[in-house]
């Protein structure tokens, strides 16, 4: 291990220390009291930046628990899960797991699923763009073989099942929402799609048939199998209308041959 790497790791460990603990004497020059004070400034900046990153990724969680509580929660999360990347947009992946075990959020049993939903929306926001569905790609495939093709979903799309009404929680906490803000927590369960049709992530409640269709596509099923799964849950399900709807929404972006790299 290089001396520089050892120094960087020691400095990082010193930043992660709590309170007024003195850092290793070999790390810094000068009086220990001055070093502790200066290190506290760096430590405050580190935790402050991580708290801002969490607040950007989890605005609904922050609204639910309040700003002061969220800042304290962010500090505890940072101690439990240090950043693994220099890109703070990648920071906070395990907050749902953290709040599920955090003693002070046990009276909010829906909070872990809300956090999970927000992280998926955060990742959808940063997902790569992909060209829209191009029907000319099907020109060389006989209609009889369309059912053998495999649907490809847009990058950033994700599905989530919950016993809580996640779509309603998402909707009423949007900054531009102007309706009644009441949420019936007994209105679940919910099945939602998280995606980014343009520049803003969205969360949509799904009917069981649509959830079955998209979940099958996620699992790599052929179009025929995915539509069959959807139809099993709802005899009134219209396969052609559903396929057209999700293509138009930019959720299904391609149909590829089995084994073809999407």
Give structural attributes:
262 residues; mainly alpha; 2 domains; 3-stranded antiparallel β-sheet; two-stranded antiparallel ribbon; 5 strands; 9% strand
Task: Walk me through the structure.
- Helices cover 47% and strands 9% of the residues.
- It is mostly helical and 262 residues long.
- The protein has a 3-stranded antiparallel β-sheet with strand order 2-3-4, sandwiched between helices.
- It folds into 2 domains: 108 residues, no CATH class; 153 residues.
- The longest helix has 26 residues.
- The model has no long low-confidence stretch (mean pLDDT 88).
- Strand 3 and strand 4 form a beta hairpin.
Mean pLDDT: 88
The amount of beta strand, in percent, is 5-15%
Coarse morphology: elongated
How many β strands by DSSP?
5
| Uncertain spans | none
Q: What string gives the helices and strands in order?
A: HHHHHHEEHEEHHHE
Distinct helical segment count: 10
Radius of gyration equals 24 Å
SSE blueprint and pairings:
Blueprint: H1 3-16, H2 32-57, H3 59-65, H4 67-80, H5 95-101, H6 111-125, E1 150-153, E2 158-162, H7 166-172, E3 190-195, E4 202-205, H8 208-218, H9 223-233, H10 239-248, E5 252-256
Antiparallel strand pairs: 1-5, 2-3, 3-4
Helix pairs in contact: 2-4, 3-4, 5-6, 8-9
Describe, in short, the structure shown.
By secondary structure, the chain is mostly helical. It has helices at 3-16, 32-57, 59-65, 67-80, 95-101, 111-125, 166-172, 208-218, 223-233, 239-248; strands spanning 150-153, 158-162, 190-195, 202-205, 252-256.
């Amino acid at each position: 291990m290089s001396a520089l790497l050892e120094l960087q790791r020691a400095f990082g460990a010193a930043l992660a220390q709590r309170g007024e603990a003195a850092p290793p004497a070999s790390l810094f020059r000068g009086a220990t009291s001055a070093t502790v004070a200066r290190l506290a400034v760096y430590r405050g900046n580190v935790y402050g930046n991580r708290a801002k990153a969490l607040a950007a990724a989890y605005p609904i969680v922050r609204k639910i628990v309040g700003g002061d509580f969220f800042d304290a929660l962010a500090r505890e999360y940072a101690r439990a899960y240090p950043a693994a990347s220099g890109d703070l947009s990648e920071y906070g992946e395990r907050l749902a797991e953290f709040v599920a075990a955090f003693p002070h959020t046990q009276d909010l049993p829906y909070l872990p699923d809300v956090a999970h939903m927000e992280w998926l929306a955060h990742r959808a926001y940063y997902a790569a763009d992909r060209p829209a569905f191009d029907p000319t790609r099907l020109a060389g495939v006989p209609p009889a073989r369309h059912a053998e093709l495999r649907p490809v979903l847009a990058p950033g799309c994700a599905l989530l099942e919950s016993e809580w009404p996640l779509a309603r929680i998402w909707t009423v906490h949007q900054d531009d929402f102007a309706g009644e803000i009441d949420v019936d927590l007994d209105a679940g369960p919910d099945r939602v799609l998280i995606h980014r049709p343009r520049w803003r992530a969205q969360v949509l409640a799904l009917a069981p048939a649509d959830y079955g269709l998209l979940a099958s596509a996620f699992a790599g099923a052929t179009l025929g199998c995915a539509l069959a799964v959807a139809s099993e849950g709802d005899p009134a399900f219209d396969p052609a209308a559903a396929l057209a709807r999700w293509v138009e929404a930019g959720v299904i972006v391609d149909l590829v041959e089995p084994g073809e790299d999407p």
